[in-house]
Design goal:
- The protein is an alpha/beta fold and 633 residues long.
- The strands form three sheets. Strands 17, 18, 19, 20, 21, 22, 23, 24 and 25 form a nine-stranded mixed beta sheet that branches. An eight-stranded parallel beta barrel has the order 1-2-3-4-5-6-7-8, surrounded by seven helices.
- β4, α5 and β5 (130-134) form a beta-alpha-beta unit.
- The termini are far apart.
């Protein structure tokens, strides 16, 4: 199937938009009339420019308030149509979108509208133009695709067909299954848009909050399955009105858009195996299961920072177990957690250090098939990552992750699983290291600008078999941070995405100082947080100190045993519970530009991340924030 996007969906002038759209891999564009009107060029020049970018004009839109008008407005509407047909001829566009009439002057009646469309079809046919009719969710008389289809059916002209738009159908909660009975060849065009579930005026919701399929809460997948079942094999086009997108980078928004369509078609193809859907062939979403999905987390650091991280890891109970055969790269381990510290003076980690300072530059994920993971990611527009392989090194499949980092993939199918034996040799860590009972990584927390959150959600959910949790607000004393998690069903992959809206929040400060989004904290899992806290204290670890007021409030809020509150207070452990279980959290002070470690224990299937505790944790971190550098041990 061909892909297109409406020019109104992205920022820039028409030329910038077309360049970004073509680069992202779309086949065509919907020319939104205002984008054309604002451009300083004749219709012929615009048509040529579109074709020069290798694109086609899939649709010209919108033509408003046409059907059901009383005279003399009716005659005027036809005159307007004729002028638009002239313009389309110059542009080289052969399909126009007529949206259902929203004018208070319009009259109802299916046959009246059908007659108008029949006449319009006759006139359009003489010009080789086709007319598509779309039911706007807020149309005066027609606001349901079933009514629009009935009008098209009765108009009974080969140049008049139906245009479907997922937003209008799904926003009005019309069952998309009703589309299945429409003949596919009578559907002229399909527009796709998702949106977050917000209870508001339909017009305002549509004009400002649409987003890419898979980024919102509407069942665009169910809609598209029904469309595919009709036999429709025309263009799938994104018509996304979103203020944030219009203020964002045309390049990145276009890439997200193309990814969302490729991902959607792949899902539909798998769900409807009897229907032939032309789309990119790729491996299915990558299963994420098993206990230790995160194989390693790698820090880029200079020597001084590396010594600081090493000292902190030691009191956390990690042992320095291996060193790279040819590079300044060290492996620290506890339980199933592998932390790599890279102080090389060349290569990717070094480049990342120059740009971002000390940071998590690389994450290794354990998957069933590393090559298939890269193949799928590439099909979805992710950038493959390659760097020269040094002596004794293995070639590990990788892609560029978010915020300039790298994701490596390790599987059990090949030598990749033996990476620690092949690329590293054991070292004898002479210091006495007492394990603190840390078992594995519970979650990775990535911090980003709020505008990047949808990109991240789409990136992870399209590649991996994961889903997103509802967005929650984290209250930083200096502003709001939005938080959303990407999770696999069994919890073996948990990534929290934190979107900062300003620089004064702890998250916003981190992004500003680090020049971009990145992992801001790693949460380690313990099966007995009180035993872990004791072992940490014995190692000399100093936890982030939580205000005593927090524990007073905890006692008032929740009916907890006094002795439990006392134990929590003494160990500076934060507490939360949900319908299923309990959650315990312990934090390290921040280091570097605001990075920190967290230790958690989940009891009885607690599903969250302690968002309710975040304001207290953030306030404590701000009290303890050092301008720069590492805590001293
Ligand atoms: Mg539309
Ligand atoms: Mg956390």
């Amino acid at each position: 199937m061909k892909t297109a996007i409406a020019t109104v969906s992205i920022a820039g002038d028409l030329r910038e938009k077309l360049a970004a759209i073509a680069a992202a891999g779309f086949d065509g564009v919907e020319i939104f009339e205002n984008d054309f009107l604002a451009y300083d060029g004749s219709p012929r020049e615009v048509g040529r420019m579109v074709r020069d970018y290798g694109l086609e004009i899939s649709l010209f839109q919108p033509f408003r308030d046409f059907e059901g008008m009383p005279e003399p407005q009716r005659a005027k509407a036809f005159d307007r149509a004729e002028r638009k047909f002239d313009l389309m001829g110059e542009l080289g566009a052969d399909l126009v979108l007529v949206c259902s009439n929203a004018s208070p002057a319009s009259l109802g009646g299916v046959d009246r509208a059908a007659q108008d469309f029949h006449e319009l079809g006759v006139r359009a046919a003489t010009r080789g133009i086709r007319v598509g009719y779309e039911a706007l969710a807020w149309g005066r008389h027609v606001h349901d695709h079933r009514d629009a289809w009935e009008i098209v059916r009765r108009a009974d002209h080969p140049n008049v067909g139906l245009i479907l738009d997922s937003f209008h159908t799904l926003a009005r909660k019309i069952d998309p299954e009703t589309i299945r009975s429409i003949p596919g060849d009578r559907i002229f065009f399909v527009q796709l848009a998702d949106a977050p579930k917000i209870d508001m005026d339909l017009l305002y919701w549509s004009r400002h909050f649409r987003n890419m399929p898979g980024e919102g809460d509407l069942d665009v997948f169910g809609f598209m399955r029904a469309v595919a079942a009709t036999g429709y094999n025309g263009t799938l086009s994104l018509e996304i009105f979103n203020d944030q997108f219009r203020g964002g980078s045309p390049k990145f928004i276009s890439v997200d858009g193309h990814r969302s369509l490729v991902y959607l078609m792949d899902r539909v193809r798998r769900a409807e195996p009897d229907i032939k859907i032309e789309c990119i062939d790729m491996p299915d979403r990558i299963a994420v299961s098993g206990v230790e999905f995160v194989e390693f987390v790698e820090f880029a650091a200079d020597e001084e920072e590396a010594a600081g991280i090493a000292a902190l890891l030691r009191v956390l109970g990690f042992a320095h177990v291996r060193r790279h055969v040819s590079k300044d790269v060290d492996l620290w381990r506890q339980g199933g957690i592998n932390i790599v510290i890279n102080t090389e003076r060349e290569g990717f980690a070094h480049a990342s250090h120059i740009v971002h300072g000390m940071n998590v530059c690389d994450i290794g994920l354990k998957v069933e098939d590393a090559a298939a993971t890269v193949e799928r990611a590439r099909a979805l527009g992710a950038e493959p990552f390659d760097q020269p392989v040094g002596p004794g090194e293995m070639k590990i499949p990788a892609i560029r992750g978010l915020g300039g980092g790298v994701l490596h993939f390790i599987d059990d199918r090949s030598d990749l699983a033996r990476i620690w034996d092949i690329e590293f040799r054991p070292v004898a860590d002479k210091s006495v290291v007492r394990s603190t009972g840390l078992l594995r990584i519970d979650h990775l927390a990535q911090t980003m600008n709020y505008e990047e959150m949808l990109t991240s959600v789409l990136f992870y959910t399209s590649i991996f078999r994961t889903s997103k949790t509802p967005m929650v607000d984290v209250v930083d004393p200096a502003g709001l941070v939005r938080s959303q998690a990407i999770e696999s069903d069994d919890g073996s992959l948990r990534i929290t995405l934190n979107g900062a809206e300003n620089r004064r929040t702890l998250a916003g400060h981190f992004i500003a100082e680090r020049f971009g989004s990145a992992v801001q904290h790693l949460a380690f899992e313990s099966s007995d947080i009180f035993a872990t806290a004791e072992a940490l204290t014995a190692n000399g670890f100093k936890p982030l100190k939580i205000s005593p007021n927090y524990y007073e409030d905890l006692a008032a809020r929740l009916d907890l045993d006094e002795s439990l509150i006392d134990r929590l207070r003494r160990a500076h452990i934060l507490y939360d519970r949900d319908g299923k279980g309990e959650y315990f959290q312990l934090y390290s002070p921040g280091f570097g530009e605001g990075f920190f470690f967290e230790i958690v224990e989940r009891r009885g299937g607690y599903g969250g991340y302690g968002a309710v505790n975040a304001p207290f944790r953030i306030a404590a971190q701000k009290r303890h924030m050092r301008p720069k550098g590492m805590p001293k041990y």
